[in-house]
Automatic annotation (TrEMBL):
Swiss-Prot/TrEMBL keywords: PQQ biosynthesis, Transport
Pfam families: Lactamase_B_2 (PF12706)
Membrane spanning residue stretches: none
Family: Belongs to the PqqB family.
Domain Metallo-beta-lactamase, chain residue ranges per copy: 52-268
Lineage top rank: taxon: Bacteria
Coiled coil: none
Any one Gene Ontology BP term: pyrroloquinoline quinone biosynthetic process
Gene3D superfamilies in alphabetical order: Ribonuclease Z/Hydroxyacylglutathione hydrolase-like (3.60.15.10)
Source species: Paroceanicella profunda
Function: May be involved in the transport of PQQ or its precursor to the periplasm.
Pathway: Cofactor biosynthesis; pyrroloquinoline quinone biosynthesis
Protein name, entry field: Coenzyme PQQ synthesis protein B
Length: 301
């Protein structure tokens, strides 16, 4: 039977919760077991319950797969993971490809721009081209990455990966092109959108989100200057290519009033107060109709 099913493999942004070098209140609470730890950014999707597409290969993919029975090997060297799709070239979305290197066939979908980024990094040659097919996908092109699932990549405002910023001069943090994309998935009449990185909601993006059964959206920060205020860094969310949840220019406001079945935040940075169940910020997001994604969360449409 064809049914669109999605499992959050990792709900956190780069670094995860806790992040190895972070002593912030959230990371310490996660270490003490007071709030649920979250691994790094990834979503698994199937349309037939057997063949799975993994969206983004996080550095935590090994334990994410181990924690997901539906993705366990089905034979000596056969796995339900049939394809991987990338939404950008950030480390939290590509480093896990190195874990998938054990001569296991799958197809790797990404834009031509991200394919060039991978091709320029010889370490990804560890994915033997004889068994792992790299398939560049044009924006707007409709493909079938696993049986019964239709997928389209579309530009989401964002920037190049951090490691390609150079000295940052002239950096555009909300460009629309092949460096940061969202994914539209559909099966059996259901439509799901996955946008883990987004600098702003343009009218074009809003039109695409309208009427979706589920939207998984960039939940990196609650407030744009959150990391600065907490003493964790010098960058705003906007500088990192991520819009925040709260405020008049935030994602909660941007999607308010739209016809969207389920709205779920993913890619939360460990500084984000919504990671604390019961926090005022989490209750505000929930009151606005959002669910805070977490590892292992599953939806069926
Ligand atoms: C991001 O989402 O902004 C990046 O994952 C940051 C990073 O590469 O650490
Ligand atoms: Mn990220
Ligand atoms: Zn932290």
């Amino acid at each position: 039977m064809t049914r669109l099913r999605a499992v959050v493999l990792g709900a956190a942004a780069g670094g995860g919760l806790p992040q190895w070098n972070c002593g912030c209140a959230n990371c310490n609470a996660a270490r003490r077991g007071e709030i649920p730890p979250q691994t790094q950014s990834s979503l698994a999707v199937t349309a037939n319950g057997e063949d799975w597409l993994v969206l983004n290969a996080s550095p935590d993919i090994g334990r994410q797969l181990a924690a997901s029975p539906a993705l366990h090997p089905t034979a000596l060297r056969d796995v339900p993971l049939k394809s991987v799709m990338l939404t950008n070239g950030d480390i939290d979305h590509v480093a896990g490809l190195l874990t998938l290197r054990e001569k296991q066939p799958f197809t790797l979908y990404m834009t031509g721009g991200i394919a060039e980024v991978l091709a320029a990094n010889p370490i990804f040659g560890a994915l033997d081209p004889a068994v792992v097919t790299r398939a560049p996908v044009a924006l707007g092109e409709s493909i079938e990455p696993v049986s019964g699932l239709s997928a389209t990549l579309f530009a989401a405002p964002g920037k190049v990966p951090l490691y390609l910023e150079g000295d940052g001069a002239g950096l555009v943090t909300d460009m629309e092109g092949e460096q940061t994309v969202g994914v539209e998935l559909s099966a059996a009449g259901a439509r799901l959108l996955y946008v883990p990185g987004c600098a702003r909601v343009t009218p074009t993006l809003a039109a695409r989100l309208q009427g979706a059964d589920a939207v998984f959206f960039d939940g990196t920060l609650w407030e744009d200057d959150e990391m600065i205020r907490l003493g964790l860094g010098v960058k705003t969310g906007a500088r990192m290519g991520h819009m925040s949840m709260n405020g008049p220019s935030g994602s909660i406001a941007a999607l308010a009033g739209m016809d969207i079945g389920r709205r779920i935040f993913v890619h939360m940075n460990n500084s984000n107060p919504v990671l604390v169940p019961g926090s005022a910020e989490r209750r505000a997001a929930e009151a606005a109709g959002w669910t805070i994604g977490q590892d292992g969360m599953e939806i069926t449409l």
